[in-house]
Amino acid sequence: MAWKLKLVPDNTKIPFMRIRTLAFALSGALGVLSIVLLFVMGLNFGIDFRGGTLIQVQTPGQADIATMRGTVGALGLGDVSLQTFGSEDEILIRIERQTGDAAAQQAAVETVKKALDAQFGGLEYRRVEFVGPQVSSELVRDGALALGLALIAMLIYIWFRFEWQFSVGAVLATIHDVVLTFGFFAITGLEFNLSVVAAVLTIVGYSINDTVVVYDRVRENLRKYKKMDLRELLNVSINDTLSRTTLTSFTTLLALIALAVVGGPVIAGFVLAMIWGIVIGTYSSIFVAAPILMYLGVRREAFDKEASEGGGEASPV
Hints:
Shape: elongated
Helix content: 55-70%
Strand content: 5-15%
Strand order of the largest sheet: 3-4-2-5
Distance between the termini: 26 Å
Structural class: alpha+beta
């Protein structure tokens, strides 16, 4: 007999709707706090957004990136990052933009070269590029644009897939997750760079997928239980999908925790953003996205008509 892992027992009957007011109050307080922190403390933008210098180095053999990171980090040039590029003997070094003009940036490059040449032999400097503030501002704008377009595209898709109430609920829950993620980075002071932007977009996709699973069961139950009170129907729908939601989040977190332990500082921001986002996304799918439907006035008639046109078949979860 096969053994199955279940984080949630079958036939759970947790009354989620009873605590919806408390959940909304908590989410609202955290959202306001996150926005205040963004204005007061701001984000700790990385080199990608602040500007700086990029140096590509080729080593004679496999690069000792940990030693090189320590050498460059000890030079007092501010924020620096190192990562492999293409192969194990190619290293990208990013240095924070230095105070002053182009001469100050060039002096920082020469300082790095001198330090690396003194400790490592046979290095080849393939390219040196300066990322100015204009390019950095374009990256900020493009990142915000990507996030906005993703939310609009999901709003339109869910509107056509379900009803406008579901579309608004899903987007509000996703905005909730994004705002709290920004607040997390503001209060922790972790570096906010392009990899974190990628993590935020991934969180958006994960959260919306989780929400759609719950919404699909709500739609199925609206067809199935035509006389059931909406509050009870939402409770039933969340409990029906609770095992799937928690198990998916749990297994994803296991992979992310492994990356956090062995991945090193290069992907630390991405991994921590993902871990936070998975937790918040799971919470919002249960305590934000579904309860919102109670206040948006879901029309049962739309799903009755859809069921009759489609032969009464419900969509699978």
